[in-house]
Specification:
Blueprint lengths: L1 H5 L4 E5 L7 H8 L5 E4 L7 H10 L7 E4 L12 E7 L10 H10 L8 E8 L5 H6 L7 H13 L4 E5 L7 H10 L4 E5 L5 H8 L4 E4 L1 H5 L1 H12 L8
Parallel strand pairs: 1-2, 1-8, 2-3, 3-4, 4-5, 5-6, 6-7, 7-8
Helix pairs in contact: 6-7, 8-10
The structure holds SN-glycerol-1-phosphate (1GP).
């Protein structure tokens, strides 16, 4: 089952279909030992650029997931689909509004057994995703913990601490990790070096690497071994 599958994920690359990437880099990412590839982004994500990237990954042996940001970019053929719901916004479009529009548009074509909900808490005020979703990033650790408990209570499979573009607070990730049991903790944001990858891998179930791919894909490949060298919950 899909929920069990994601329990195996320690490291995931996130590719933005609106950004350029060479065949050489794509091949290297696919064979790096990462557990999955997520395709998704905030700006300029279209059916065409998403489908094109999926086609270029057609021989990839790890699962490729689409993270759906708009109903118009939904592309058939992915291993599974992740649907973000932003918990720290008051704008209902980003909580369940987009989901409603997507279901209304695609209705019976939706492969429900391949769809997972992700509960996002967006914490970098300068990230595009924070601006787009009007996220309230001015949160204390207690606020984030309460959101995590909410995700657990609602049985949402993934709680995603999103610092996209900047490195986040390890103490917060550690606290949140202690509150989650069934819900998986994804961490993404600003992983650029070994110490950061190792630090977050101690407390997050899954570490997501995005921007580094586009700045230095060879270094991004190294994040796989850095994350996987750490046993979750273990102090090195
Ligand atoms: C973005 O969480 C991911 O959605 C990864 O963040 O791009 O900062 O690595 P970075």
């Amino acid at each position: 089952m899909l929920r069990e599958k994601i329990e195996e994920f320690r490291h995931v690359f996130k590719l933005d279909p609106a950004k350029n990437i060479s065949d050489e880099a794509l091949e290297a990412l696919s064979t790096s030992g990462t557990d999955a590839i997520i395709i998704g982004g905030t700006d300029d994500v279209t059916f065409a650029n998403t489908a094109n990237l999926l086609y270029r990954l057609r021989n990839c042996l790890v699962p490729c997931f689409q993270e759906i940001s708009t109903p118009t970019s939904l592309v058939p053929g992915f291993s599974a689909y992740l649907t973000p719901t932003v918990l720290n916004t008051e704008d209902a479009r980003w909580i369940l509004g987009m989901h409603h529009q997507t279901i209304k548009r695609f209705g019976s074509f939706i492969p429900w057994d391949k769809v997972l909900l992700e509960a996002y808490v967006v914490l970098n005020p300068n990230a595009k995703v924070a601006k787009r979703t009007n996220a309230n990033t001015n949160l204390q650790i207690e606020d984030v913990i309460a959101y995590a408990q909410m995700a657990e209570w609602l049985q949402i499979p993934i709680f995603y601490v999103e610092y996209s573009g900047t490195y986040g607070r390890v103490d917060m990730v550690k606290e949140v990790s202690s509150k989650l049991k069934q819900t998986r903790l994804f961490y993404g944001g600003g992983i650029r070096g070994q110490s950061q990858a190792e630090e977050m891998a101690k407390w997050a179930d899954t570490v997501i690497v995005g921007n580094l791919i586009y700045d230095d894909w060879i270094k991004a490949i190294h994040t796989v071994k850095w994350v996987k060298s750490i046993k979750r919950g273990e102090k090195k």
